[in-house]
Specification:
By secondary structure, the protein is of the alpha/beta class. Helices cover 32% and strands 24% of the residues. Strand 8 and strand 9 form a beta hairpin. The longest helix has 15 residues.
Length: 226
Amino acid sequence: MKKFAVIVAGGSGQRMRSAVPKQFLLLKNKPILWHTINAFFEAFADIEIRLVLPAEHLEKGKEIAALFQQNNQIQLVQGGNTRFQSVKNGLAYTEADSIVFVHDGVRCLITPALIKLCMDQALIKGSAIPAVVATDSIRIAKNNDESVVADRNNVRIIQTPQTFQSNILLEAFKQEYSDSFTDEATVVEAYGKPVFLIDGEFSNIKITRPIDLLIAEKILEERSAF
């Protein structure tokens, strides 16, 4: 079965306090986005990548794509004003009867093992949404300074790649945009299809702040030691 990864990389360097968009910052001498793409090629050598970037960063995306022998399997796609539209733009270059992974470009520590597990479950159940249990106490904010405790045993922190059979995802993205669409799972649920969680990885962090880059460097160092 054909496999497509829609990698969305529309972030800025604002919270990283960097003039360089975070997806292009260097991690172990390579752009963060390179590590993300490489994980998918390590999982499946024949996967097709749809790299979604803002118009002003497409040329930089081409430079990163050129670093791969499989650069002919990487297609650059211009993003939209929302994540929903950016993913929809990427999906326009996928095909029916395939498995589609939608992944945050700055989740660069994703492992090939998790990518493969997501595909295995999506083939059976139609979807695979990586998630990890909450380890901190969770409170839900109410009016003013009030809050209520949530049972953290029932709380899951959602990750990517959110993985689907293409016939489900492509149809779901024909809906009109809603502010309730926070990720692909919410789009699919609004279409009337259930989504199924799968155990994610605590190391599958999203690079957002400077400390995340330090954590990522340490994780990669530990992985290379084995």
